[in-house]
Amino acid sequence: MDTIDPTRFIFASFFVLGLLGVFALALKKFGQKSMLSKYAQTGRLNVLETRYIDGKNKLVLIKHDNVEHLLLIGDGKAMMIEAGIKHEA
């Protein structure tokens, strides 16, 4: 009986850590879309699309009064890649 309890504890710990890992992966994959749709459509400024380049950098396409701008965001800096893309509504 003493041998089963530590083994059960170890397997239960791995099971819980595995569940946390699956939850973290699901949140990373599906969390950005839900947060983007919830906060992006406020006022005249809209975030149309976000693409991750790597762990530090991402491209963001924003729209302001039917004009789109492409931004590169990363390392605490934002750089405008293309500005004034006209969009007919």
Task: Give an overview of the whole structure.
With 89 residues, the chain is α+β, with helices and mostly antiparallel strands. It has two domains: 1-39; 42-89. The protein is built from one helix and four strands, in the order αββββ. The protein has a four-stranded antiparallel sheet with strand order 1-2-3-4, with no helix packed on it. β3 and β4 (77-86) form a beta hairpin. The longest helix is centred in the first third of the chain and has 36 residues, at 4-39.
Name the features.
89 residues; alpha+beta; 2 domains; four-stranded antiparallel beta sheet; 4 strands; elongated
Quick one: how many beta strands?
4
Helix amount: 40-55%
Largest sheet: 4 strands, antiparallel
Strand order of the largest sheet: 1-2-3-4
How many separate domains?
2
- What distance lies between the first and last C-alpha atoms, to the nearest angstrom? 72 Å
- The number of helical elements comes to 1
| Cα Rg | 21 Å
> N-to-C SSE series?
HEEEE
Uncertain stretches: none
Mean pLDDT: 82
Q: What general form does the structure show?
A: elongated
Fraction in beta strands: 35-45%
Question: Structural class of the helix and strand makeup?
Answer: alpha+beta
